[in-house]
């Protein structure tokens, strides 16, 4: 297979990962949906930053919009959200097969919003709203390097 055909196939893999993520999400497989969305983020970040390490590409790609503007305390340190999604979502799901026991999902307060909450004693649980899933899908679908893979009016991960 020529390099151009392989590149096109790999780019369509990003669209397939988003489709997989949405399918899993719609069937209440939250961790699997997040994993597929994070794979789409990782693949998109490598397209945008081909000479960066995986971590640096992933984090640099998410250093946009809401991901860069929010930090949260987790395990006694303040971390930017993009780092939490790399280290404790992407890496844990890929390398350990699940999220850390001190991370939980919580419902959104309002549709279309994101929230994250650092829990104090006695739980010390990081709670992440479901809206972050849609935000991950949104940044992948609207990334300029993915132009042509998605309709222009993708909203919360669903083509209209």
Task: Summarize the entry for a quick read.
The chain is mostly helical and 160 residues long. It has 6 helices and 5 strands.
What can you see in these coordinates?
There is one protein chain. With 160 residues, the chain is mostly helical. It has one domain. The chain has helices at residues 3-26, 30-48, 54-62, 66-69, 81-96, 131-141; strands at 71-74, 77-80, 103-106, 116-118, 126-129. It has a 3-stranded mixed beta sheet with strand order 3-5-4, with helices on one face. A two-stranded antiparallel ribbon has the order 1-2. A hairpin with a 2-residue loop joins strand 1 and strand 2. The N and C termini lie far apart (33 Å). Mean pLDDT is 87; it is low at 1-8 and 156-160.
What is the topology?
Elements lengths: L2 H24 L3 H19 L5 H9 L3 H4 L1 E4 L2 E4 H16 L6 E4 L9 E3 L7 E4 L1 H11 L19
Parallel strand pairs: 3-5
Antiparallel strand pairs: 1-2, 4-5
